Amino acid sequence: MTLIELSHVIRxxxxxxxGWPGPEVTAHLTRKASAxxxxxxxxxxxxxxxxxxNTGTYVDSPAHRYKKGADLSAVPLDRLADLPGxxxxxxxxxxxxxRSHLATFDVAGCAVLVHTGWDRHFGTEAYGAGDHPYLTGxxxxxxxxxxxxxxxxxxxxxxxxxxxxxxxxxxLLAAGIPVVENLTRLADLPRSGFRFHAVPPRVAGVTSFPxxxxxxx
Length: 217
Description:
The chain has helices at residues 31-34, 137-145, 167-174; strands spanning 3-5, 24-29, 46-50, 58-60, 83-89, 96-97, 111-115, 134-135, 150-153, 179-181, 194-197, 208-210, 214-216. The protein has a single domain (3-9, 52-216), classed as Glucose Oxidase, domain 1 (3-Layer(bba) Sandwich). The protein is mainly beta. It contains 3 helices and 13 strands, in the order E-E-H-E-E-E-E-E-E-H-E-H-E-E-E-E. The strands form 3 sheets. A 9-stranded mixed beta sheet has the order 1-13-11-5-7-9-10-4-12, covered by helices on one side.
């Protein structure tokens, strides 16, 4: 069994996308302060973190798009954990990824991971630029029709961001299909034959949150 990390490391102050504040990581209880509470030589550190849900590699629940959609506490585990995985490799230079790039795959019940190579720009201004790869509404409709279980991409947004339209989030989340954005290392995965995991904390009232995404080969 081989485990492949598919998430970016979250660090204090990092930028995931233009306009999103970076996470703040502070000490709620320092080792020095804790030393007086325990036996000699025993100390602990407890951290506090403040971040927006769309930080690093994260999952969007249906509630991200829809007021009455399932939030993180209600998304079924079978949409997030131990899913058969498929990697769709998109040729270099392709920006708008439509159903023609997906048509050879049997995606029913699978986590469909779109590999564009855009993760090479993560942490730079280029990553959030408007020319990032994205799925089209046509591709999203096809994924819904073919019963994909989850969809991920190694880009800043699964939708194009040139306008305010978000047809991919709209279609996938309406169908209860979680969206995982900002994946990385999809180049290390085979086309198929692996299991995909991307589980966030079970927090009521929260619509998106970072995940430790990984594959088991």
